[in-house]
Design a protein that fits this description.
By secondary structure, this protein is mainly alpha-helical. The chain has helices spanning about 1-5, 10-40, 45-80, 85, 90-95, 100-115, 125-145, 155-185, 190-220, 225-230, 230-260, 270-295. The chain is globular, with a radius of gyration of 20 Å. The protein binds protoporphyrin IX containing FE.
Amino acid sequence: MAWWFSENSLDVWTVAMILVAAGIYLSALVATGAVLFRLAFPRLPDHDRRRVARMGVLSAWAGVILILFQWSLEAGYLGGGNIAAATNPMLLGIVFDGASGGRLILVVAGLLLVQAIQLNNLAFSKTANSLSLVGVLLVMLAFVQVGHTVNTPRLVLAVLLIVHLMAAAFWVASLWPLFHLVGQHYNHGNTARILTRFGQLAMGGVGVLVLAGVTLATLLTGGLTPLLTTAYGQFLIGKVLIVAVLLLFAAANKWRLVPAFESGDATAPRRLQRSIALEVVLVVVILLITAVLTRVTSPNG
Ligand code: HEM
């Protein structure tokens, strides 16, 4: 990997593209995952329900701003990497006319609809749930409009990526609400129940996430040799190693810290919060590596 960075002296423009892509991943996963988390835990205490909704709405707006910024960056890149090109109406039009335009519309529409979870407390909660789920679906569909998964077998790759992203969204969006829940000094029994249920759901979710990711990697690279010899393959290995560390933290939470929390160990809440905070850091690193994978490397070498 280090050789790749030294051979491809990264310009500011490319670094900005990677950071913005990672930001879009994070905001889209948190916004859509907030909807999935609320549906998986319909009986959250009121203030926690509101916290999850607020997190979803803020992430959705961050995603909208970042995707518009990415549009401008892509125009700038097309025009040779300068600010004038980034605001040039003709270049912006060219980018919009391509697949990126369709993706932009789907992401913005999806992220606006996702915000219906805020209405979830009101009488029309069924409509709100359906609207926010349509939003989730639109955001997921946006991801399969561009990138390496538009190659054949397109349908298989698209389904695998959507499954991969839904599972990732649920996991990533749960971290902030769980961090807050374990820090509360009241309603210990209810928090313990939520943590246990989360552990059960996360086991299945992580299995699906890893299985879909590994199948995608196999289909995209086509075997072990490209995995070892191309920059794409090496970044992918880097991603899998960080995911493995993340899984170790998740396993320690499920099998060590959550049982300690349930049994009333006074140090467990702090240790759980520390572990969740570290998981957030690892997720950010994983998303940065994913942005490098999708923006500046190719499975074909
Ligand atoms: C064993 C674990 C994993 C493997 C093997 C894996 C593999 C992959 C592969 C091959 C892709 C397609 C990349 C491309 O289009 O070139 C992908 C996409 C993606 N992965 Fe993973 N992944 C794993 C875990 C994760 C985790 C834990 C997260 C989030 C926390 C994550 C987030 C993403 C995102 C956001 C994309 C979408 C990229 C895009 O289409 O623009 N992945 N993953």
